[in-house]
Write a structure and sequence with these properties.
Strand content: 15-25%
Number of strands: 30
Structural class: alpha/beta
Bound molecules: beta-D-glucopyranose
Number of helices: 20
Distance between the termini: 54 Å
Length: 785
């Protein structure tokens, strides 16, 4: 049956199937019910799909002090209410709460259920939000809030088979927000989606995806921040800050090295620690440091032989030890595996429980605590971490309530993000912007008459107005394919009142070519839908390359607009005059694209990832495990180590199609007066940027660093960047500080970063391939931390 298949597929390994092999699960239910009292409904089910043995439907929870309409009520006096004292620190309050809780109440706080209220979910709670990812009941006796968890980075998402879709503002994809290279804008974007989460009754947003783009074909690249640890960590950290400014918790995920979707629950990523510390782990470290998320989600995959959610090294040593992380670790939905190992190795909250017997904690954790396999202190620590994060965020003192949403204002935030993150990749002969001399434009393909594409899976947001293009495959998980109802065609017609803009859907290639031939300029939209749970070839689907070739042949003034979740191959790149990467541009993607094409917006997006010329140029032409059966275990060798993206291309001296950091503007910039000096212990870089063109614009200045004597995984790393807005003719002096960890290598023997003494080259450039200008500076030895 469809729902079951979807769930099975989505959560990867044996879920329902495995449960069916373990009928003993039902016999544990009364124990679970007894342990958890009324706070947690376990001995119940709504599913008749289980083949007869299912218990009766779940009764609604006893009225909770945390229900949507009711603020947290004062708990009974004495020890049970001492934690509510707002003058105490979050730590102190969490400690008081933990001492006021019974063991079963603590167990309740560390166990999360699937939020969606469908038959296959055996744990259905009256208070859960029916479209959502997760729900953790509160503890009404002491006035502690329930946790309502929603996906994700592009806004408030709706789970695949939700009864009614929640229509919420679709922020552009994470990869587009990263393309803005503007942390202040990313923070504003985070603030907007976080406000919609709060107004929709959620106090935990599962957003803050920061897995590095190692595989251009990863189906979730659209959710993340690109290939570079500094850029991704900074941008995602800013989104997290914005979300949490709404007094809710954000979640940095998927920790760690979950850089592909093929075999995501069974892939065993092999990488050495020194490489991981200056690549994937650094992205997380920076995002966590800068965003201070209340929670971190451990991932499905294995890292060096151990599941991420029971990986002592990752969770206890790196995250909670070296990085001093005080928040809680929640499992990705179904990523929990073993009660004792998970608990002792750093997992604080089981999540997404939906199938009886297919859980790790509940009564099993109680039994492990009673037998001493998991200490009572560890259970207290889990509870303390969860409570502390919710208190610190403000979600406890300022409970979430349904509230009106100003969709108009929020759409403007989404549009500003899109306009700053759309990347002009090529503009031969100044084909763009479309000036008043252009009288006839042929717009072709990509459903551009109706809307703009969004990414699929758990991050799927249904924008106001619903899906503009229904019925595309796949309609089931990780679909449906959703287009935001924001028509580039309508927007371009409004932008170009002096021109005629014709429309051809591109299905008939000859008709499209004929339309192109009779126009001054042809604009072809090409799309690639990507989604969670699978990887994708990086070739445009449905013969769109042939469509572009035919149109470009018919009209030499052809502009291609891409809506993709990550890099794709462009065999026609030499024949298109203009190329624009619009990613998944969100709720107001239509006007954002049209305004870039018309010149109302001067493009300022820069690539957060390299675009390869050919598959063979990648560290792996084929992603490990593509097409493998879900439970097949396999190794993923990250032999390229920390040489991800441009670092790889530099090391191998391979010319990408478009390099990391690349992005054109309708104006031009000059940079000079580059100087580098050590101030205190920091490396400061100063330079001047001037807008030498005739339009206002924004430059993205990139500072790359490298030891003159070599010795890193690659010739250079991005060490700092700045986005600078300048009126025509204006100039500005800029100072940036190089992130010290990007000057360092991981010294495994001492467990810290070490900057080797010597000469370093500091390069100021406009992309990873730009030779720019450079200076050298001498650095002394420095141990970090
Ligand atoms: C995804 C997470 C998501 C969770 C809840 C998982 O399948 O990997 O990113 O937050 O589901 O929907």
């Amino acid at each position: 049956m469809k729902l079951r298949n979807r769930f099975h597929l989505r959560r990867g390994s044996a879920t329902l199937a495995l449960f069916m092999q373990h009928p003993v699960a039902f016999s544990l239910l009364p124990l679970g019910a007894a342990l958890f009292g009324t706070a947690l409904v376990v001995a119940c089910s709504g599913s008749s799909a289980q083949g007869g043995a299912a218990p009766p439907p779940c009764p609604p929870l006893a009225a909770s002090a945390t229900s949507n309409a009711t603020p947290v009520a004062a708990a009974p006096g004495g020890a049970t209410s001492a934690w509510l004292d707002k003058s105490a620190s979050p730590d102190e309050r969490a400690s008081r709460l933990v001492s006021a809780l019974t063991e079963s109440e603590k167990l309740a706080l560390v166990t999360g259920y699937f939020g969606i209220q469908k038959d296959w979910n055996h744990y259905r709670f009256a208070e859960a939000r029916p479209q959502s990812a997760g729900y953790v009941p509160g503890v009404p006796r002491v006035g502690f809030t329930a946790q309502w968890q929603t996906d994700a980075g592009c806004g408030v998402a709706t789970q695949g088979e939700a009864p009614r879709e929640l229509e919420r503002t679709a922020l552009p994809a994470g990869i587009l927000t990263a393309s803005t290279w503007d942390p202040a804008l990313a923070e504003q974007a985070g603030r907007m989606i976080g406000s919609e989460a709060r107004a929709s009754g959620f106090n935990v947003m599962l957003a803050g995806g920061v897995n590095l783009l190692r595989e251009p074909g990863n189906g979730r690249n659209f959710e993340y921040g690109g290939e570079d640890p500094l850029l991704a960590g900074t941008m995602v950290g800013a989104i997290v800050r914005g979300i949490q400014s709404n007094r809710i918790v954000a979640t940095v995920k998927h920790f760690a090295l979950n850089d592909q979707e093929s075999g995501r629950t069974s892939a065993n990523v092999l990488i050495d620690e020194a490489a991981a510390r200056v690549s994937d782990l650094l992205a997380f470290e920076l995002a966590i440091e800068q965003g201070k998320p209340g929670s971190v989600m451990c991932s499905y995959n294995l890292v060096n032989g151990v599941h991420a959610c029971q990986n002592d090294w990752l969770l206890n040593r790196v995250l909670k030890g070296d990085w001093g992380y005080r928040g809680y670790v929640m499992a990705d939905w179904g990523a929990q595996h073993d009660t004792v190992l998970d608990a002792n190795h750093g997992l604080d909250q089981e999540t997404g429980v939906s199938v009886q017997g297919k859980y790790v904690w509940l009564d099993k954790l109680a039994a492990a605590v009673h037998s001493g396999q998991v200490s009572a202190a560890r259970l207290d620590d889990m509870t303390h971490r969860i409570a502390r994060s919710l208190i610190e965020s403000g979600a406890v003192d300022d409970p979430v309530r349904l509230a009106p949403i100003d969709f108009e204002a929020n759409a403007k935030v989404a549009q500003a993000d899109a306009e700053a993150g759309i990347v002009l990749l090529k503009n031969a002969g100044g084909v763009l912007p479309l000036g008043t001399n252009v009288k006839k434009v042929a717009l072709i393909g990509g459903h551009a008459d109706r809307g703009v594409l969004t990414g699929g899976g758990s991050a799927q947001v249904y924008p106001p107005g619903g899906n503009a293009v229904r019925g595309l495959s796949p309609e089931g998980w990780p679909g449906p394919v959703v287009y935001a109802p924001s028509s580039p065609l309508a927007a371009l017609r409004a932008e170009l009142p002096h021109a005629t803009v014709s429309w051809a859907d591109g299905a008939d290639v000859a008709a499209a070519a004929a339309a192109a031939a009779s126009a001054d300029v042809a604009v072809v939209f090409v799309t690639q839908w990507t989604a969670e749970s699978r990887d994708f070839p990086i070739t445009l689907p449905n013969d769109q390359d042939a469509l572009v070739e035919a149109v470009a042949k018919a009209n030499p003034r052809t502009v291609v607009v891409l809506e993709t979740g990550g890099p794709v191959l462009m065999p026609w790149a030499g024949r298109a005059k203009g190329i624009v990467e619009a990613w998944y541009p969100g709720t107001r993607g239509g006007p954002a694209i049209a305004r870039v094409l018309s010149g109302a917006v001067n493009p300022s997006g820069h690539l957060p990832a390299s675009f390869p010329r050919r598959l063979e140029d990648l560290p792996r032409a084929k992603i490990y495990g593509v097409g493998a059966t879900p439970d097949l275990k396999f190794d993923v060798h990250y032999d390229e180590g920390a040489a991800v993206g441009y670092r790889w291309y530099d090391q191998r001296r391979i010319e990408p199609l478009f390099p990391f950091g690349h992005g054109l503007s309708y104006t031009s910039f000059a940079r000079d007066k580059l100087a580098a000096r050590v101030e205190g212990e920091e490396l400061r870089v100063t330079f001047r940027v001037k807008n030498t063109g005739s339009r206002a614009g924004q430059d993205v200045a990139q500072v790359y660093v490298s030891p003159v004597s070599g010795g890193w995984e690659a010739p250079k790393r991005l060490g700092a960047f700045a986005k600078i807005a300048l009126e025509p003719g204006a100039s500005r002096d800029v100072t940036v500080t190089v992130e010290p960890r990007l000057l360092a290598v991981w010294d495994g023997a001492h467990g810290q970063f070490r900057i080797a003494p010597g000469q370093y080259r500091v390069l100021l450039a406009s992309s990873a391939r730009d030779t720019g200008t450079s200076v050298t500076v001498k650095l002394g030895e420095r141990l970090l931390r």
